[in-house]
């Protein structure tokens, strides 16, 4: 078995970070757990000997009282230590979970969305679901191994007494040595079998879990989304998809049942093999001590003590071997945890932002393609946006518009070329500060089951006047005032039965209000009117143009009627910036924009 020194250092540091006393307390708890059987054996032997020799009733009762007191003290001390270990273990688990969540929230978005990041997250989720928390398992298996080691040490003390009694009773030294040699040979064979059995079991277990990631994702999708999400419920009912879904989910359930049966079979075989070895060795020990008592080389009471001690020796060895095998089996899950926390991220800039809100953005020969693809999503894209410009990006699906926005937001990094803010590469700025310059309404925006004002203000303090202004600007003031708790009303019903169920259009208005509330110098909207009716759409464009008169506005839209108020329109096709100009200029040019415009105009005229 190879020893992973680095993994040991990391886990020990994690223990010490939570409490420097966690490992000592765990060791002390398992020492007491190992001592308890020997306290019972010692006083039980004294009681049996007293009864066999016909000693007085008072003496036998005194031995029984000592037995009870000894067990009570050991149990009480073990309980106190166990409570401390359990409490500290929960702190350890919470701390490691906090680190994972903080890493996932703060890590570079491109890395989070990458195959490496998503695979690690999926593997950790799978491991926690099927194997359990790796730190909880670490404490459990370490405790098993420590109790086994202490048990072996205690048993060796008693076995040494056994040998001394035999020699004192006249047993030959050579015979005694041969006995102990055979005993050690049996013990070594038992340990070897247990270790090999444990390693084989853990390899099979980890291999089974390794094949389960995709299956778990599907299972979670059906359980959490299809069956419990009202958004799927309408489709399922109207299009009579129940039988299809039940059939597909049934296949997944069958695969899960087969997996659980396989795991159960492996666990049963593993535990049965260990039990057979342990029972066989303990049986030999009992037989041997019984023969020695029959030959009057040891007392009758000591048959109980020494046969029990030998049984504890083999049990301890089994625990040590199984604990070591389990620790090794747990190691890959621990590595995943630390691999995720240590994912190497690109160096983040530290430049200070411009003192004023005047910003100028420039794309200079920018190329980009998504990880794992060969096709360029953006090819040699260059353009400039001055302070206060209102810019529209248009083009067919997949032409590169949203990718431009993602690069500007520093969710991704260009593969070639550079994007500048006031002449400085945007990667050079502190990212948290840089994001404060930008208000964004994503096409697939998210509202949370929080209070309404929290959805708009985020982590910042509630600015009442600015909040109501943003809601009023989006025509949502009256709607919010009618809610059961105004801006303190919860959205949706995950946490509050009174939660407000809002329409798609209302949700989009709140998302835009959120961006207005931030009051950043650059305002970005990716397909902002997708869920709005035509009247609301017209009002949105009119209000946006008025409200953001002095601010820089960049938006993406497939409805070219929204482009008329813009200063410039950027037309993309297949990752290339094909045309640039005002609405009138591009119509006169007679190129891609005019084709798109006439296609949409023809549709509306036909209708």
Structure description:
- This protein has 607 residues and is of the alpha/beta class.
- It has 3 domains: 18-205 and 273-341, ABC transporter transmembrane region fold (Up-down Bundle); 357-437 and 520-607, P-loop containing nucleotide triphosphate hydrolases (Rossmann fold, 3-Layer(aba) Sandwich), CATH 3.40.50; 445-519, no CATH class.
- It is built from 20 helices and 10 strands.
- The chain has helices at 5-18, 22-53, 57-106, 109-113, 115-130, 134-168, 173-210, 213-226, 230-238, 242-294, 300-341, 401-408, 431-435, 452-457, 464-473, 477-481, 504-518, 534-547, 583-589, 592-606, and strands spanning 361-368, 378-385, 390-395, 416-421, 424-425, 438-441, 522-526, 552-556, 568-573, 576-581.
- A 6-stranded mixed beta sheet has the order 6-7-8-3-9-10, with helices on both faces. The chain has a 4-stranded antiparallel beta sheet with strand order 2-1-4-5, with helices on one face.
- Helix 5 (115-130) runs antiparallel to helix 11 (300-341) and helix 10 packs antiparallel against helix 11 (300-341).
- It is elongated, with a radius of gyration of 36 Å.
- The chain starts with a helix and ends with a helix.
- The mean pLDDT is 80.
Task: From the structure above, extract its key features.
607 residues, alpha/beta, ABC transporter transmembrane region fold, Rossmann fold, 3 domains, 6-stranded mixed β-sheet, 4-stranded antiparallel β-sheet, 20 helices
């Amino acid at each position: 078995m190879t020893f992973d020194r680095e993994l040991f250092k990391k886990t020990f540091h994690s223990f010490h970070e939570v409490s420097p006393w966690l490992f000592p307390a765990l060791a002390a708890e398992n020492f007491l757990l190992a001592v308890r059987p020997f306290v019972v054996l010692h006083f039980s032997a004294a009681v049996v000997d007293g009864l066999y020799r016909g000693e007085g009733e008072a003496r036998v009762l005194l031995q029984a009282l000592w037995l009870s007191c000894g067990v009570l003290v050991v149990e009480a001390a073990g309980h106190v230590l166990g409570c401390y270990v359990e409490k500290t273990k929960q702190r350890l688990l919470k701390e490691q979970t906090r680190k994972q969540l903080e890493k996932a929230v703060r890590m570079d978005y491109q890395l989070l969305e990458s195959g490496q990041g998503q695979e690690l997250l999926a593997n950790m989720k799978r491991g926690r679901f099927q194997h359990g928390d790796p730190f909880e398992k670490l404490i459990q298996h370490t405790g098993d191994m420590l109790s086994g080691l202490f048990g072996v040490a205690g048993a060796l003390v008693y076995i040494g007494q056994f040998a001394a009694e035999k020699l004192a009773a006249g047993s030959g030294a050579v015979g005694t040595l041969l006995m102990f040699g055979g005993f050690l040979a049996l013990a070594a064979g038992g340990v070897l079998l247990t270790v090999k059995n444990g390693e084989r079991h853990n390899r099979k277990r980890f291999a089974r879990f390794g094949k389960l990631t995709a299956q778990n994702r599907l299972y979670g999708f059906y359980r959490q989304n299809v069956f419990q999400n009202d958004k799927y419920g309408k489709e399922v009912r109207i299009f009579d998809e129940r039988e299809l879904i039940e059939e597909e989910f049934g296949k997944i359930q069958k695969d899960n049942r087969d997996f659980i049966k396989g795991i159960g079979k492996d666990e049963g075989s593993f535990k049965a093999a260990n039990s057979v070895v342990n029972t066989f060795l303990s049986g030999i020990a009992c037989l041997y001590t019984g023969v020695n008592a029959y030959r009057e080389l040891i007392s009758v009471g000591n048959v109980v003590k020494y046969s029990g001690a030998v049984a504890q020796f083999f049990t301890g060895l089994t625990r040590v071997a199984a604990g070591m095998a389990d620790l090794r089996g747990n190691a890959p899950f621990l590595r995943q945890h630390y691999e995720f926390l240590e994912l190497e991220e690109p160096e983040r800039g530290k430049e200070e932002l411009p003192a004023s809100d005047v910003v100028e953005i420039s794309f200079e020969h920018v190329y980009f393609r998504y990880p794992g693809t060969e096709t360029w999503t953006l090819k040699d894209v260059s353009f400039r946006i001055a302070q206060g410009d209102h810019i529209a990006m248009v083009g067919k699906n997949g032409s590169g518009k949203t990718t431009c926005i993602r690069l500007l937001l520093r969710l991704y990094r260009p593969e070639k070329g550079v994007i500048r803010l006031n002449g400085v590469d945007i990667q050079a700025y502190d990212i948290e500060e840089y994001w404060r310059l930008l208000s964004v309404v994503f096409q697939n925006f998210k509202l949370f089951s929080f209070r309404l004002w929290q959805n708009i203000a985020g982590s910042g303090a509630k600015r009442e006047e600015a909040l109501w202004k943003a809601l009023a600007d989006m025509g949502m003031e009256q709607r919010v005032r009618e809610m059961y708790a105004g801006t303190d009303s919860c959205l949706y019903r995950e946490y509050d039965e009174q939660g407000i169920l809002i329409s798609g259009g209302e949700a989009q208005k709140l998302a835009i209000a959120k961006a207005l509330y931030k009051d950043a110098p650059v305002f970005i909207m990716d397909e902002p009117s997708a869920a709005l009716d035509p009247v609301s759409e017209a009002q949105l464009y009119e209000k946006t143009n008025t409200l953001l008169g002095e601010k820089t506005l960049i938006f993406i839209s497939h409805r070219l009627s929204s482009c008329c108020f813009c200063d410039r329109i950027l037309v993309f096709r297949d990752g290339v910036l094909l045309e640039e100009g005002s609405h009138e200029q591009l119509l006169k040019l007679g190129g891609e924009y005019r084709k798109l415009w006439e296609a949409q105009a023809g549709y509306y005229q036909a209708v």
